[in-house]
Write a structure and sequence with these properties.
- By secondary structure, the protein is mostly helical.
- 73% of the residues lie in helices and 4% in strands.
- It contains five helices and two strands; from the N terminus they run αβααβαα.
- It has a two-stranded antiparallel ribbon.
- Helix 1 packs antiparallel against helix 4 and helix 3 runs parallel beside helix 5.
- It starts with a helix and ends in a 10-residue tail after the last helix.
Amino acid sequence: TLRRLSILAAVWALGYALYRAYYGFGGQLGMIGVPAAGVPWRAINLIGAGALLGAAILPIVALHWWTRPVPRRLLLGAAWVIAVGCIMHALVDGIGRAASLVGILEIRYPLDLWQSVDLRQAFLQDLLFNEPWFFVEGLLWAAIAWHVLGRGRRSRWLGSAMVAILGLTVIGLLSSFGVVGRFVVF
């Protein structure tokens, strides 16, 4: 099970890396607008693709280290951060994009990055593709940790992750809706 979950997490991250690499190498299909002159759009996507490639390699490399006590603790910490960060990111951005599409919230894209942008297309792409990717990635890392932990320590790990997801999601949404100042976590 651990091997299958790790391979699935690797393939999932690799798929998103290829998506970012497509834009990094100049792909245009599905573009939400025209990047502003001087904005290193391709470089930003290539850097993202590189980071995602690292995310694709990590679960495979980690297979060797789960049985050793010190690396196991570090990997469980990394799994917690990845699970919490990805799920929270998906929830905050997904709810924000949905609220914007129905007219409850006004989200502005950084206009210094775009010469022109189709916000509806951008929000739909986020809701249907980007945020589900983050949500599933977070769930996969939670499932990996769940499997590694065994029965005795699952509840503490999962409980703390759920509290963190809830707290950070509330803070992120309060920030998005302008109730509190700008708060960027992930």
